[in-house]
Amino acid sequence: MIASLRGEVRHIGLDHVVIECGGVGYKVLVAPNTAGTLTRGTEGYLLTSMVVREDSQTLYGFTDAPQQELFHLLQTVQGVGPRLAMAAIAVLDPAQMQTAIASGDLKTLCLIPGIGKRVAERIHIELKDKVSAAPAGGGAVAGSTVPAGGVSQQLLDALEGLGFTPKQAEPAVAAAVEAGPDKSVSELLRDALKSLGRG
Q1: Does the residue 75 lie in any domain?
Q2: Paired strand residues for 19
Q3: Which structural domain, as residue segments, surrounds residue 185?
Q4: How many domains does the chain contain in total?
Q5: Following DSSP, what letter does each residue of 134-179 receive, concatenated?
Q6: pLDDT digits 0-9 by tens, 164-187
Q7: Which of these three, 39, 62, 85, is where a domain ends?
Q8: Is it the case that residue 60 has pLDDT exceeding 90?
């Protein structure tokens, strides 16, 4: 099982990166905020989890252990697979997710694309005893995916990782966030890329 990868970042996409290790390029599915921490042509490091299905073997990548643990924990809930778990990581950081689960904040959980009220309730019921609420100041927010500064910074990091300069990225990010305040980070990143001619 591949537990981590360290090597040259060969490609950064919307939902994946390619890291070359020992002459082999590994495609790793990641959240946009994780992709934003990497830069093409430089050494990158990711914790990884491999999900094996009858017809596929897929690597998922994470910047740190809390993200990876959240990925595995969410999949213990019936109806939550790896892609839905990755969508959760893209929208909420582990502390926000823990707070939402522990407090039964279904509104925040439903901000995750693909999670409706029924699945949100199931996540709360099945995981509330397995997580602890985040410390004061790190709680989940209602009405937006993450605090505005956090979303903007994630988008800026992702765009810079894709080769855009801050001068190019900042107007695109500002326009995307203003036009779609209720959208997920992934959707906002796509909107920003469209405005930059990469959509």
Answers
A1: yes
A2: 9, 26
A3: 151-197
A4: 3
A5: PPTT----SSSSS-HHHHHHHHHHHHHHTT--HHHHHHHHHHHHHH
A6: 787 888 888 888 888 877 777 777
A7: 62
A8: yes
